[in-house]
Structures are given as C-alpha cells and as structure tokens.
Amino acid sequence: MSFKDVIDEEERDAYMLCNEAIVRAALEADVQLVSFYPGAPQTEILDNFEKAASKYDFKIEVAANEKVALETVAGAAMLGKRSLTSMKSVGTNVASDALYTLAYTGLKGGCLCLIADDPHAHSSQSEQDGRWFGLTAYLPMLEPSTPKEAMEMVKKGFELSEEFGTLVLIRTTTRVNHQSGIVPLGPMNRTPFEKVSWKEMKRPYTSVGELARKGKREMLDRMEKIRKKMARSSLNRVEYFDGKELKDKGGDGEKLGVVTAGVSYCYTVEALARLELPAKILKLGVINPMAEEMIVDFCEGLDKVVIVEELSPYMEDVVRRSVKDIEIYGKRTGHFSEALEYDIPSVLEGLSAVAGVEPPFDHKEHCKEMKKLAEILPQRLPVFCAGCPHRATFWSLRRAVGDPDSVFFANDIGCYSMMCLPPVEWSDTLLCMGASMGVAAGVQYIAKEKTIAVVGDSTFFHAALPGIVNLVHNEDDVTIFVLDNAVTAMTGQQSHPGNEKKAGGREGKKLDIRSVLEGLGVEKIYDISSYEVKDNIPIIKEALEHEGVSAVISHGECALYHYRNYRRGGGKLVPYFIDLETCESVHACVLNFMCPAISVMPEEKGKARIHQDICVGCGVCSKLCPKGAIRSTATIYGGDNKPVYTVEDYEKYVEKKEAEG
Amino acid sequence: MKQINIILCGIGGEGLVLMSNIIGETCRLAGENVISGEMHGLAQRSGSVIVHMRMGDEVLSPLIPPGEADVIVSLEIMEALRYLYYLKPGGTVITNKRLVHPPGETHELVMGKVEKYVEYEGVLEAIKSTDAEVVEVNALSLAKKAGEVRAQNVVLLGALSAALSGSIPEKSFMDAVEETVPKKAVESNLKAFELGIDAYES
User: Which terminus of chain B has fewer CB atoms gathered within 10 Å of its CB, N or C?
Assistant: First the structure.
C-alpha cells in the first residue's frame, strides 16, 4: 500500500487503505473538483488527493470548514462536473445546513458527500450516527463494508447522482476507512479539465417559501424513483452461510436470518463461522432508501431475524416496521449494544444468545486473565510531541493563572484537547469546533472566576469567528488564546487559511490572525512566541487582567511540521542533554511538562535524562531548569548558534566520553 | 491458505504503519488475501498503537478477536504485554528488547505516586508467565548494524517472516520491502530484514 498505487495506470490488484481506494475510484470516475476539511477517520482522502494533484488535472481545496467544502463541490455539480467531499461524522453537523437544502434543489453533475462515522469515539467527541442524515434529508446513502466495496460504491454513487440529479451520500465508519485490503485497480479514464458555459445549463438552485414547497414535492418524487430503482439493487445481496462456508445462494428452509451492513457484515460472517451456525444473510449496501420489499422477501419463511448494526437501531426499526409474525432480535431486545463499536466476539455473543448455542471460546474470560497481567503497566496516553509549542504555552498559562481553579477554561478541538485527558485533566469544557467562544460568553455572565477560551488556528477559521464576533459585540469579559501553529496539526499538518500554502502545497494567500482579530474589534491583542515560556507569564497575566475581550496569539509552528520541513531543507536536529554534574533532581523538566524525550534515572538519584533520538531541540526544558543543567548539544561543539550537529555526532561524543571513563 | 492473525503494536511514530504496509504488500505479491485494521489520529501522539493484520481466504473482518492472534510483534515490550490478551494460547510474541517509559509514568514517579519504574525484566516475566513463546530481538543494535537506525521495524519484520516461513515465502517479504521503503534505503533495510531472520532463528 502506498500512494503510487493510487495513481498507477496499470490495471492490477493493489493492497490499499480504504481511504486510498476511495481516492483511486474517484480519479478513475473522472472527478473534477474536490474539497475537504480534515478530520479522522477520513483525512487520508484529502491527503491522497493533495498528492494526486501534481499528476492529474482537477481542482482541490482545503476548505475552511465542512459546510464550505460541501457548498464548493455542489457549485461544481451545478455546472455538471463530478465532484466529491468527505467529512467526519461531526463535520456533517457543520455542513448540514447546506446539505438539507441541496436535497431540495437537486444537482446536475455527479456529486458525492462521504460521511465518516466514528463508533467508539476513537478520535471524535461523540459516537454520532450519520445514517440519519440520509433518512432525514431525503438523500440516497450507500454503505460499504470493505475497501473493494467502497471503490465500487464511489463509482456507482456518481452514476446514481447523475441519473437522478441528486447529491449522494456514502457512509463509512472508522473500521472501514482504516481498513486495508486487496482492491482491483481499474482504468484511469481522465478527461482534461475545462470550463463550461453556465448559460447553456442555467436553471435555478433556489429554495424558499413556494420554491421550497415545490422543491419538497420534487424531492419526494425523486426519492420515490430512487426507491423503485434501488429496490433490487445489486448493492443489496442475500447470501447463505451453511455452517461451513459462505455461498451466494441457497438456504431454502433455513429458519435463522441476519440483516446487516457495513463492517458489521464482516463480523457477522466470521461470528457465524466460529459458531458453525447456518444462517441466511441480507447484506445491505443501500441504507437509504432501505429496500423494504427485499427485507420482507428475505424474512419470508424465517423464524428469527437478527439485525446486526453499530450505534442506533436504524435498520432494526425498519425491519420491525416491515415484517410481522417473526421473532426480531437486535438492540431493542438487549442482544446488541447501542454503544461502542462491534467486533467478532460481541457479534458472536449476540448471535449465540439468539440461537441458543454455546460460544466455542470464551473471549471475555481469556481477556480477563491476560488483562490482569497487564495491570502492572502504566498507561501510555497520547501526549504533546517533543518540541510541541502547546506544551510551552500551557506551561506559561498555568503559571500566569496560578491556581487552575481560579479560571473557567473553555477548551476546543485540536491537539490541545489532550489537556482534558489524564494526567493533566485541565479543561472545563470541550464540546465541538469553535464552541469555546460561545460557552465562554455564557460563563462570563455567571462565573465569578475569569473566563478563558482556547482555540487553535485552524479551528479559529473553521468555527470560532462568529463566537468572537459575539464576544466583541456584547462587550464580554473573556481572554481568548489562539494557538497559532501554522497547520491543522492533529489530523496530520494540513494547511488552513492561516498558512501561506493551500491544497497540494501551492502558494495561497495567508490570513493573518492578528489582523482578523483587529478587524473584529478585539481591543487588546498580545503576540507571544510559544517557546519563551518565562517571558510569556507577565504578558499573559496582563491579558487576563484586562476587562473586556483580550486575545493572546501564541506563535510556534507544530513541531512535526516545523522539524520535518527543517530536515527536508537540510537542517540537522540538535538535541539537548542533561549535565549530570549540575542536575540536582529538581524535576522542573518533568513536573507538569511531560515531554516524551525526558525520563529520569532511578540509579542516579532520579536525575533527568533526555533521549537523544526523541528530543528535537526546542530548548524549552532548559529554560525551566533552575540549576542550568539542561544544555544544547551544540554547546559541546562550539556554541548555540551553530546548530549543525546530529544525533549521531552526539552519540559518538557520548561513546567517546564513556570510553574515556 | 489457513488463517493467520498478527498483532503489531508499539508507540505512535515508530513506523508500525509502514510495517503493516510491507506485510500487506507481501501478501499481495504472494497471492494471499489480506486485511488490516489500523488506528490513525489521536493515538499517534506517542500513545499506544496497535495494528491488526489478517491473512487467509476466509478472513473478512479488520479486527482480530482476543485470544486468536498467532503472533504479536511489538516494537516495545510494554505494548506486547498490554495487548497480550489478543494472543492465542501457545502463540508467539516477538518483542523488541526495549522499554520506553511513558511521560506519565515519569511524572508519577517524580510525584511519588509510584515507587519505581516498571522494568523490562518484570514485563518479560509477566509475558513468560503465560504459555506464550517469547522471542526477544535487539532491533536497535541490529538496525544499526544494518546501517539504518530507523529500520528497527524491518528487523522485527525479518523475525516475523522467519516465524511465518511455512506459510509465506521469504522472497515475497523481501520483494515487498524493496517496493515499499525509499530507494536509497533498500539495501540497508534488506540487511536489517536478514538480521531479523537470523535473530529469530538463533
């Protein structure tokens, strides 16, 4: 699996991540415009399109948010061009204002919107079930189980979209997006990008009042046509597991059936195999409109039907509505959970309870013993990277604030969200993109404590601006912290409107955060350099003392982004080291700092040590040490201003010193 | 081919995804079905990371059930123990001879919340207290020997290929390494791979 497979012209099998297969399929289907806001588990779709932009002629944007991205691709589809956006589950909430009305207006060209849900909330703030968008917005929705199916559905989705003149939704989950498998590469039928005349295809995409009422009728008609067309779609299929293997027909007289979709289908087949339990399977690929006639036919002659789906009982309730005189099992009967993602054991448990058979292996009991052994381990939670500017900013903020209980801390979505996790656990709220500003507005009316609202640079442009406008207009008393690390760091350092690069690494127009804040009327604005940890304390104190809206912009590039560029430009990392003769085990470099490059040496009275393979040389720890025991390895060779020495040089130096005793 | 389930684990940023890509490519070249499930995003920031690799005709799901992994390959020993519950009875653990203290552990130690660090030997003992077969590989020294300090993952891959020698040809692994790593690093990575095989066999 690699990017080269995404753009390989050869028609062969490739091992691909589902997100790569989606990009490949869209390129094969001649997509002409794509736009995204990054967010797990769909970010690799943007990343791969960015790389492909250097080879193929299509338009690409990293949009300010998901709503803008959807509107952008809709714009292209109004002119008949194939276009695609994808967004994480909660990103769809942002885009939904446009989404619901686009269903009324319809579109001319093939237009796909992929919604990537995150059952288990691996990297999201909720387990939101995106399937309801399809149902409630009256938009067709497809759901693949594997990378291969995702590839097929992207192509089918474009065709469906064009045939019926509607936006088509594709719903995935983390375990599908981040699943890799073998996919067949098809022909790359690209056409050169060219502009078309609006005049020749002009028709209104407007919806209000009478127009909306007309649009609603048309939308209902359209969905009815799609329902008829998709009623026997090959994307929905009946299979039979005979107790040993899966067959594409048979099972007449079988009394047990399973209705499933998405990754739950995969778990179902393997769970049946472990139970050696024969069952008919209805695997749905079209989850809106649901193939109710097919469900009724499938259930004919069955005694029991089980619905296996993650999150809400979306399909289960359709089955309950469509089928009578049959035992129906699912979440409503307590056999399956509405919480968390599934796996083979959880599906196996539900199926064995329904069928009244013993599971062959007690996965839970096995886990219990093994997990007990692992209790000796410390947790390994995600932390700020070595050299991360956020670590430095929060260190200064904590000192400026003094007692963390003396402020209300409204946090936001980004790497800095990690502040709310153990062992730091310093955040009073964490809701959604940009929410820190709105929450702070309410809190500052009521709380006696000072209210602070923290937001990253990408989130600032994504959803914080209206909240800031609101704070300023109402003359609220809040100190805003904008953490300007130049990129959307959490998702893999994509560009955003505050970066001089736009999608695909091309030059764009950088929006200056200070100018934006000034333009919005923020009275007091302080620029600080994240790494000047001690100098920043009095500046932050001054900002906090200001009555009204004040802002602190902490500048420091994301360490992963900065040092990657630095190394690509020929720079060499210059790590710091602990001078053991000077170190007195004060641990200022450890307490509330938690740099992955620093640990202590129990055998040396707890003196600190810096791991040379992890330290990137940001030097913040050296500023914290009251004894001056932390120094740049550059000093060994001739001064801080000559950062030309490598980790390897340093290791050689240490080896030499050790040899000398 | 009979089903083979492999757990790869370690710490975010260590090259686990590259490792799983090479295994996936290996299966493609060997004409075997393969599926993997991996975690991206939040878990990358020096957190604990796990990748599920599954091969064989009948595999369909991206997640290995607990107690069904044939092999656990770990770039760091604490993570081998953390995910040991995935190992089938009598399965194999191939672990890097390396322990990395999480920053949170150091913090707790300095705060006096824990008395001492968890040490390598203690973790190894816990793994060995089960019926797992344990193979330790000093991947860092072998990677250095191969001339590519970052190839610890490929050293362990060599050891894994030795463990799977009955099922997947070594040649496919080597071809996949060649296809997947950057051109200039092919030679050192192949060397690292071979040293990993030797380490497993000795």
Answer: C
